[in-house]
Amino acid sequence: MGGCSAPNCSNSTSIGKQLFRFPKDPVRKKKWVVNCRRDFEPTPHSRLCQVSLHRH
User: Fold this and answer.
1) pLDDT at position 17, please?
2) CA torsion angle for 25, 42, 40, 28 (degrees, to 10)?
3) HSE on the CB side for 50, CA within 13 Å?
4) Rounded to an integer, what distance in angstroms lies between the CA atom of residue 8 and that of residue 43?
5) Residues sharing a CB contact under 8 Å with residue 36, sequence separation 6 or more, in sequence order
6) What would the mean pLDDT of 6-24 be, rounded to a whole number?
7) d(Cα 52, Cα 4) in Å, to the nearest integer?
8) Looking at the whole model, is its pTM more than 0.85?
9) Would you call 48 helix, strand, or coil by DSSP?
10) CA distance 5 to 27
11) Could you tell me how far CA 8 lies from the centroid of its own chain?
């Protein structure tokens, strides 16, 4: 079971949190990466949880 890609976040669907795929649009995807404060290239399996997504 996968979890949130944000640093220091262990949320997953197994604890009732909704996970969202990174956008396919390169501009929006870059904003998500910058906002989650990670220097990485999201894979098709990378997700952000509802908490991390709305935190920024």
Assistant:
1) 86
2) 20
3) 6
4) 19
5) 5, 6, 7, 48, 52, 56
6) 89
7) 8
8) no
9) strand
10) 18
11) 12
Q: Nearest-CA neighbor of 38 among 3, 5, 1?
A: 5
Return the closest-CA partner of residue 15 out of 24, 25, 2. 2
Long-range Cβ contact pairs of 35-38 (< 8 A, separation 24 or more): 36/5, 36/6, 36/7, 37/6, 37/7, 38/5, 38/6, 38/7
What gap in Å lies between CA 16 and CA 14, rounded to an integer?
6
Alpha helix stretches (DSSP H) within 1-56? 26-35, 50-55
| Angle, vertex CA 36, rays to CA 52 and CA 46, nearest 5 | 80
